[in-house]
Amino acid sequence: MFFHIVLERNMQLHPRHFGRDLREKLVSKLMKDVEGTCSGRHGFIVAITGIESVGKGLIRDGTGFVTFPVKYQCVVFRPFKGEILEAVVTMVNKMGFFAEAGPVQIFVSNHLIPDDMEFQSGDVPNYTTSDGSVKIQKESEVRLKIIGTRVDATEIFCIGTIKDDFLGVISDPGANA
Amino acid sequence: MPRRRDCNDDAVHEEEEEEEEEEEDESYRRRKRRRSDFIDDLAEEDDEDDDNGGTGGSGRRRPRRRTASEFFDLEAAVDTDDDEEEEDGEDDFIVDGGAEIPDEDGGRREYRHRLLPQEDQEEDLEELTRSIKQRYARSAHVEYDEEATDHVEQQALLPSVRDPKLWMVKCESGHERKVAGRLMQEAINRGSELQIRSVVALDHLQNYIYIEACKEAHVREACKGIHNIYAANIKLVPIKEMTDVLTVECEAVDIARGTWVRMKRGTYKGDLAMAVHVNDMDQRVIVKLIPRVDLHALANKEGREVPKKKAVIPPPRLMNIDEARKMKIFVERKQDTRTGDYFDNIGSMSFRDGFLYKTVALKSTRTQNIRPTFDELEKFRQLDEGGNGDVASLSTFFANRKKVRFMKGDHVIVVKGELSNMKGHVEKVEEDIVHIRLDQKDLAVETLAFSDKELCKYFEKGNHVKVISGLYEGATGMVESVEGHVVNIISDITKERLQVLADKVVQSSEVTSDLTRIGEYELHDLVKLDNENFGVIIRVHSEAFQVLKGMPGRPEVALVGLREIKEKVEKKGNAQDRFKNQFAVKDMVKVIEGPYKGKQGPVKHIFRGIVFIHDRHHLEHAGFICAKSQSCELIGGSGENCDRNGKPFSSRLVPLRTPSRAPQSPMRSSGGGPAMSYGGRQRGGRGDDALVGADVKIRLGPFKGCKGRVVAIQGTSVRVELEAQMKVVSVDRNHIADNDSVSTAFREPYRHGLGSETPSHPSRTPLHPSMTPIRDHGATPIHDGMRTPMVDRAWNPMSPPRYNWEVGNAASWGSSPEYQLSSPRSTAYQE
């Protein structure tokens, strides 16, 4: 799920950036710094949409660096248990497949793939129904449900299932081609 | 004894029957009278005693005597009274009779004793019923009393100083019973001359028998002339230990239908079985087993009668009756009279649903502490699919388990009783009692106490858990699904599905693969298996390792035990890639040919021209890929690599380099060397800066022998901060010697640089803009030198590599050599 929230961060700025465009520098640094990062609490920070406020800078002893507390608005993405997501399959193997929904990697175990879908190894490993009508392979888009999330310091990893109503392939690159 | 009971029961019947019985009784009585006669002789007073107030607690001795007398009456010739005294205790133990039974028995016998004359006189029914009533009232009373026997009375039975002592006498191994029997015979023959009281031979104790006697001399006397006994070796058993000698550890055999047991002996030794029907009376149990039957052997046997005893035990396999029929084995279909179930009989074996139903003695099964493995349960379940088998059997398994570690906060589900299937969480654990609070809001007012057997841990899909025992011990993963008591977990590391019993799982947030170490070998170590074979440990089981062998082209995984590993390879070599680029451990390489073409990752091990690469996205073999160094390509600014590696050891030629640094890695060592060649970009003499911070020893001059750290270089002299004295001195460059043991202060930044090199690579570009400050910094070498070790370390823990540039540790760029490397590289990136 996406959220638009306000976060705060202490930014350290090298004295060489002090000048007219200090604020700009600060913002660009902030963007570089936080966009794409992930925290367990808030999830992935997708984009900074605005700066709320920049506090007073504090010169750190001995280094000349200045610390600014910056409040910024950002869009975060945090996957939740039970959430339905659409994701792109990135890798298929006999244990299941990996899919990505934006920054989140989701693993769907073969036990969580409908029983009628079988793993087909080969050049393009895929899961196919017995009648061949539905195929999950790399680049397929699937709709899945998250059944569990694991939050590491720098990553959120999810396990998903497509063994449920209305879940499964939503567009098949093989079919379009 | 059963006979006697019958007799009592019969007595309650109608008179007609009574008449008939009379005759039966007559013969019995005749025998009885003979016995009672001598009982009377022996212990008339005792009997009287009993009549008056005889309760179970009235003493141990007497009942024992009873048993003995009974024994002699039924099985042995009539003896003199004195002998009895000797024998009784002994018999008691050999017969293995409990104290209670004879006790009760004794009581009963007396009634009969009194009753019989009445019968003789053919008393009327009324009289009889009355007497019977009386009798049963009595016996009930007696039983009650027995139950009420409390600790104090028990204590009173314990041996005291006044009682005869127990002596431990050595005898020949295997002859314990024989010796005891000899002594018994001796007692019969010699009567009261033999002054010992009893002899005990314990089945579980070899080489010794116990003799009860007042004096050691009596024991010696008794042992005289008996073979296989070593009377020279007599030990007194301390009073405290006397009870232990004769304590029978009674295993409370609590076996019910559906309990898991294990077979103790025979073909099925160690096999798991399920008790189907328990007959407490004759201590037999019908168990359900997976048959180990060799149909071929059976067919042969039927056909040609070849009684060839096979040494090999056939593997367990469910019996297929049709198959057996095809092989012309005679199969008989029978209906069990008791249960009405149909069984297929082959010879003496009966089968149903593929399982073998076998009647075995309770003693030949092990009932305590059975922990069926998951596989075994699975086998049993296969056929029971859908039936009541799953849950029921598993729940009995749970009832059977020894110790469950419930902890406060654990999520549990009730598996037994009227509240079953209620979920809750543990509030408090007291021994076996677990207090839980139900999740249901309206029921959550107070905690409920459950026996731990009634509860089972409960997990939900998506829980992150850790396996705490069993095959997968230590593994962590996410719960994929829950089937009854079985939790399916998707391992974090391998993404495999593990099936584990809920009992063996706890909620946890940590992420580990498994065990990571046995002995000195750890996960991901490179080990030598023998002179030719080596490999990387990719998985640690509880007793073995999975090793990915160093065979490029085809992944071969071997399961090796701890002993099969010869040694750990610590050597960190380097190798050349296809384009003759040198690379070392931790460098990024890409496989450019072979089955793993396209895979890339940091090199973890290099050995004999074989590299082990760890690709995070490679799911098999814990991400390890084995390839020839020749089929790899060093990635990450390989252009410079050629350049630098063209003269990898040139740095050695540079005067005043620390020798220990040079050979470690060409990449690293080149820091100093090329510095000269890049001189155009960097200030001249920059290479010397590498010396700054180095620990040196002064060879000549007034400070000869002193050690110190170089803080600055000024022309041909260096400023050295002495270790021993609080001062900085100027020494001629030629008067110092590089210390072999380069201080850690120096190395620290080094190591860091290396580790971070790979991941930080993409962020090299931003490094570049800050080149200017570096130069500025360089202008004040003193500052440089002082900062390096300290600043670097200070920053490391906080800042991931990507932040390096903005964290602005400019000082370290100037001084630590790895950054010198990277700066030229980064230019390449930009272009």
UniProtKB/TrEMBL annotation, chain A:
Residues 8-64 form the RNA polymerase Rpb7-like N-terminal domain. The keyword Nucleus applies. Keywords: DNA-directed RNA polymerase, Nucleus, Transcription. GO terms for molecular function: single-stranded DNA binding; single-stranded RNA binding; translation initiation factor binding. Its main location: nucleus. It is found in: Nucleus. One of its GO terms (biological process) is positive regulation of nuclear-transcribed mRNA poly(A) tail shortening. GO terms for cellular component: P-body; RNA polymerase II, core complex. Pfam families: S1 (PF00575), SHS2_Rpb7-N (PF03876). Residues 79-156 form the S1 motif domain. Belongs to the eukaryotic RPB7/RPC8 RNA polymerase subunit family. DNA-dependent RNA polymerase which catalyzes the transcription of DNA into RNA using the four ribonucleoside triphosphates as substrates. This is DNA-directed RNA polymerase subunit. The lineage of its organism: Eukaryota, Viridiplantae, Streptophyta, Embryophyta, Tracheophyta.
TrEMBL record, chain B:
Keywords: Elongation factor, Protein biosynthesis. It comes from the Eukaryota. This is Transcription elongation factor SPT5 homolog 1. It comes from Nicotiana tabacum (Common tobacco). The lineage of its organism: Eukaryota, Viridiplantae, Streptophyta, Embryophyta, Tracheophyta. The gene is LOC107794764.
